[in-house]
Design goal:
The protein has about 260 residues and is of the alpha/beta class. It has eight helices and seven strands. Helix 1 crosses helix 8 and helix 5 packs parallel to helix 6. It starts with 18 loop residues before the first strand and ends in an 8-residue tail after the last strand.
């Protein structure tokens, strides 16, 4: 599949021999897909998941394009599927080096209303899928990272600043970033590094539920120091760096990949 930015085809094979689990590929516009492509080009072997039978036809051709070795369904709220995924990784690979968690969800009624009006069920669903699932995957990945490893999850500026229409996902992403810092502290002695990556706005399926999202992208593109939006390939390249030995002394970070937009007042 053609890369939107050919420079990323020249990524050095700094992940050769590494085994990476990428969770969250929904289609060719997914941030997780940018990560999967970049890590494969950098030499990693890839395991990918798809949400359900409806999503599979959109994800399976992408998996084939990368010669993905492990391709399994994963609804993170289904313990049997999570068990099956990690059992499959243990059986096929015997270990794991990289975990990329790139999933988020909030029911529409929770996402589009005021935070103070968020229904309990909606809040719990958003926290379950968007935050707790990272802890669950990290806990299961830990024993497979016998030689150390890197775990990454995707956040957003709305975790630390009020972003119009981001709603309940702001508090949820704040919890996710805090979780990253605690997990990094707990797993650091085992050589496992843990990061949040905070991309600028991207036209992904998950973002489609945010009101006036096109206006947000226009505003960011006009104001960001780089004067443009970032790409999924650029987010993937940043994740390759975090997973490589070049970032061996870094953990617990929230790395912004947003053209500098986060520095503006």
């Amino acid at each position: 599949m053609a890369d939107a930015n050919p420079q990323h085809e020249r990524l050095p094979p700094v992940l050769t021999g590494k085994k990476a689990l990428i969770v969250g590929v929904a289609n060719a516009h997914s941030i997780a897909w940018g990560c999967a492509q970049a890590m494969r080009r950098a030499g990693a072997e890839i395991a990918m998941t798809y949400l359900n039978d409806r999503a599979k036809p959109h994800v399976e051709p992408l998996a084939k394009a990368l010669d993905v070795e492990i391709f399994l369904p994963l609804e993170v709220r289904d313990p049997a599927q999570v068990d099956g995924l990690f059992a499959g990784i243990a059986e096929r690979w015997g270990g794991l080096d990289i975990l990329v968690h790139s999933i988020a969800f909030a029911p529409r009624e929770a996402l589009q209303g005021r935070v103070v009006d968020c229904p309990r069920d909606g809040f719990l669903a958003a926290m379950d899928v968007s935050c707790w699932s990272f802890l669950d995957l990290a806990r299961r990945a830990e024993p497979l990272m016998r030689q150390g490893g890197t775990m990454m999850t995707m956040s957003y500026l709305g975790a630390n600043e009020v972003v119009d229409n981001y709603g309940i996902m702001g508090p949820v992403k704040a919890a996710l970033e805090s979780s990253v810092r605690y997990v990094a502290t707990e797993l650091g002695p085992k050589g496992i590094r843990v990061h949040a990556v905070s991309p600028g706005p991207l036209a992904t399926r998950a973002a489609s539920g945010i009101k006036d999202f096109d206006d947000l992208m226009t505003r960011v593109s006009a104001r960001a120091p780089a004067r443009r939006l970032v790409t999924i390939e650029e987010v993937g390249a940043a994740c390759v760096f975090l997973a490589s030995d070049y970032a061996a002394a870094m953990t617990g970070e929230t790395l912004y990949v947003d053209g500098g937009y986060h520095i503006l007042g």
